């Protein structure tokens, strides 16, 4: 399987580090900040998009914790970013085990340094789109029990999977490896409800990074979850998944660029 890492040197901006910068974090490089600035120029609401995506992650994580999911596979979401999976778990008071997976060696190195030998979490360097490599990694095998439900977090991931790799096949392979009762949490970039120029601008700017992005339709996102039971309200705009408040007009405009869903393995 083609590695999502693409170019891994500091000469290429990476989506995770761009996201960290736009969330106000310091775990990024000058090349990431330059491309983030270009992205903000092209898509003025991009910080709102990222914050709304992060808000969905928090709501989805709380729903998984309420369902007694006690182990998580965090694919490409980064232990470095503010409001990451581990932060949500720790604030909840639940005792959970977490495997963070990233292909970018810089992010992995910084993540391991940040965890500093923590017992409840590890960072694995692997292609998040390669379920076999992820599950075969000794740290994953040590941390997670595949016989018990796992929360697989695919927030801000699948739109970086090329069509040739088949994002639906990626999700299906994870489904095959996790126990009944497991949940998959995903969000995905879309141009269905965004102005065409914003969609094109996002694609163009990210084509200069190590993580080119691909918008996909509602039908394509639904197809990725074949074989799952969709948790209500199904595949919806990122701001429509169990919102905690009414979005303002700027947030509504930004939220139109992402689909979100949580699905259960029957």
TrEMBL record:
Pfam families: Methyltransf_19. Keywords: Methyltransferase, Transferase. GO terms for molecular function: methyltransferase activity. SUPFAM superfamilies: S-adenosyl-L-methionine-dependent methyltransferases. InterPro entries: SAM-dependent_MTases_sf (IPR029063), SAM_dep_MeTrfase_SAV2177_type (IPR006764). GO terms for biological process: methylation. It comes from the Bacteria. This is S-adenosyl methyltransferase. It comes from Amycolatopsis cihanbeyliensis.
């Amino acid at each position: 399987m083609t590695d999502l890492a693409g170019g891994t040197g500091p000469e290429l901006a990476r989506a995770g580090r761009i996201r960290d910068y736009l969330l106000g974090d310091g775990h990024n490089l000058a090349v990431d900040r330059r491309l983030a600035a270009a992205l903000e120029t092209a898509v003025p609401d991009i910080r709102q998009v990222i914050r709304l995506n992060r808000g969905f992650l928090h709501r989805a994580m709380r729903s998984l914790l309420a369902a007694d999911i006690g182990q998580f596979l965090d694919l490409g979401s980064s232990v470095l970013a503010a409001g990451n999976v581990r932060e949500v778990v720790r604030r909840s008071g639940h005792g959970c085990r977490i495997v963070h997976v990233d292909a970018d060696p810089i992010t992995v190195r910084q993540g391991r340094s940040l965890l500093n030998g923590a017992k409840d979490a590890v960072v694995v360097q692997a292609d998040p789109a390669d379920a076999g490599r992820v599950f075969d990694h000794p740290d994953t095998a040590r941390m997670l029990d595949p016989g018990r439900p796992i929360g697989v977090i695919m927030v801000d991931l699948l739109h970086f999977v090329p069509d040739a790799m088949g994002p639906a096949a990626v999700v299906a392979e994870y489904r095959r490896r996790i126990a009944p009762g497991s949940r998959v949490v995903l969000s995905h970039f879309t141009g269905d409800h965004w102005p065409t120029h914003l969609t094109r601008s996002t694609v163009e700017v990210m084509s200069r990074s190590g993580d080119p992005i691909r918008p996909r339709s509602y039908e394509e996102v639904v197809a990725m979850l074949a074989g799952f039971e969709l948790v209500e309200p199904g595949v919806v705009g990122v701001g429509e998944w169990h919102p905690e408040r009414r979005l303002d007009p700027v947030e509504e405009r930004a939220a139109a660029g992402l689909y979100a869903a949580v699905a259960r393995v029957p």
